[in-house]
């Protein structure tokens, strides 16, 4: 059994989607970021960054408990533990990891930059706009890629799709104009949203 400590953010959703899609049993512990529940000594003992998500796998490697933070590390751990969503052939795996990094380290942090800049004590609208445009440019690239292949890294669904959907879901909810009018991205997102595991994950 896995304990997941998360919230309904892009990073939190990446971990939750990973556990649902990989079919790993878990208990969801919602963390109230507004109340600072991620900064308590107990939470910091699990993740010194004081950030969600975190998992504790009581049945980790060698049967020992494993505590893990960083949503993409959690996604890869779940994929390896379940044997799903990571192509075995080296070229397919490299393509999946390339797409995964694009989704996890470009899209989600840029969404975070827009959010943080918008919430600044003294917001600077041109900076917010700049980050928004950069985020849209990333989704435009994804739209172009998804015009050529059904999934983020090619013909089969991989960890990259799970990560990208977390970023898309959060952006679509908070900044719908950023992902509007991108038909291939929309086609892909509709298919992802229809997956039973995704539907369970987004029920926050
Ligand atoms: N790179 C980390 C980022 C984690 C992160 O920034 N989590 C946010 C929520 S999406 C958080 O907990 N922020 C609270 C804070 O940093 O105070 C990951 O992928 O897990």
Overall description:
- This protein has helices at 10-22, 41-46, 71-82, 90-118, 125-148, 159-174, 176-179, 183-193, 196-201, and strands spanning 2-6, 26-30, 54-57, 66-69.
- It has 204 residues and is an alpha+beta fold.
- Strands 2-1-3-4 form a four-stranded mixed beta sheet, with helices on one face.
- Strand 1 (2-6), helix 1 (10-22) and strand 2 (26-30) form a beta-alpha-beta unit.
- Helix 1 (10-22) runs parallel beside helix 3 (71-82), helix 4 (90-118) packs antiparallel against helix 5 and helix 5 packs across helix 8.
- 40% of the residues are buried.
- The mean pLDDT is 97.
- Bound molecules: glutathione.
- The site of glutathione has 13 residues, from helix 1 and helix 3.
- Glutathione (GSH) binds at residues 9-12, 33, 38, 50-53, 70-72.
């Amino acid at each position: 059994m896995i304990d997941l400590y998360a919230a309904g953010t892009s990073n939190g959703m990446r971990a939750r989607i990973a556990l649902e899609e990989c079919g790993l049993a878990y208990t969801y512990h919602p963390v109230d970021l507004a109340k600072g529940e991620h900064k308590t000594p107990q939470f910091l003992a699990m993740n010194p960054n004081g950030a969600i998500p975190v998992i504790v796998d009581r049945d980790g490697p060698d049967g020992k408990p494993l505590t893990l933070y960083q949503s993409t590390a959690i996604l890869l751990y779940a994929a390896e533990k379940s044997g799903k969503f990571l192509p075995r052939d080296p070229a397919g795996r490299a393509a999946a990891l390339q797409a995964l990094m694009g989704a996890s380290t470009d899209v989600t942090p840029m969404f975070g930059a827009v959010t943080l800049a918008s919430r600044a004590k003294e917001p600077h609208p041109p900076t917010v706009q700049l980050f928004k445009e950069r985020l849209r440019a990333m989704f435009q690239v994804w739209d172009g890629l998804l015009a050529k292949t059904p999934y983020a890294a090619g013909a089969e669904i991989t960890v990259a799709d799970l990560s990208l959907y977390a970023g898309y879901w959060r952006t679509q909810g908070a900044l719908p104009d950023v992902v509007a009018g991108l038909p291939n991205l929309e086609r892909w997102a509709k298919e992802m949203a229809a997956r039973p595991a995704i539907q369970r994950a987004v029920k926050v």
